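Sorry, any thoughts here?
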Amino acid sequence: MAARQPFTYMDTADEAVRATCDDATTGKRFATSKGYWKDPYIQYFARSVGERKAPEINRGYYARVKGVNHLLDAFIRNSECNCQVINLGAGLDTTFWRLKDENLLPKKFFEVDFPTVVARKIHNIKTKPPLSKHLIETHSTDSLILDTQSLDSDRYCIIGADLRDISALDEKLKKFHLNPDLPTVLLSECVLVYMTPSQSSNLLRWAAEIFHTAMFINYEQVNMSDRFGQVMIENLLRRQCSLAGAELCQSLDTQKERFLKTGWEHADALDMMTVYSMLPQDDVARMECLEFLDEKELLQQLLQHYNICWASKDKLNLGLSRLSF
């Protein structure tokens, strides 16, 4: 009988990172329950609304969701849906179902996350008809592949993989018919920051090498060298959650440079306070009426410590460098 492998620091750190998936899902579930934005599918991944979240947290999630969706939708429209999406560290995200409802579904939508997270999501999809219905409606052949760590249909594919193992990631995506010739948008939300700089650089370089026309949208922390940033790091460390890539989150410039150094042709970055100010202001005004915000300075501090950075390369001349807010 094989000896049991000791539980390592890496295992503990990975488990803490996996727990952030639940944090994001419950945070979004609460915000949508208050009417910040509509997401009829999040309820199938979070059983209850959970405890109350502070208004500045809800507004932060609003800016995150609206900001990322703005760039993603612009890319898909720009390619007239003749593209593919790869959501890296997707967690229990519901973007595939939103895009289906809004007639913005790409040729194929890929998701990648830890195998344990993927197993949970596949279980939810199998057992919740409103989720599985969309897969069935977009699947036209008999080749549906389903096991505990992967699900592959014509338009949606979810894969259990470690983003730090590039060769295995590449192999699995190609197995499920990733097309390097299609315009591709890659998403990562609070994912790269949990990887070491060399690990995340390897991932960005792989993407830049395999796709000739692509955009990478990255949402995560920024301005982490000031006192507010250090408190964020300390709070996560108490949960045994280390921001291994924090040194690349020092400024908007370091965020852009990481892409330009790994083969991407163009990069932009904005902190979330700026993004917040550039979102459609009629909807922002509606959202701000939902809850009274007493700590406006705290919201500003919070938004100034997150950013969206997007990078592109554009062999097909789709005008990707012009996509912005």
In short: Residues 1-7 have pLDDT under 50 and may be disordered.
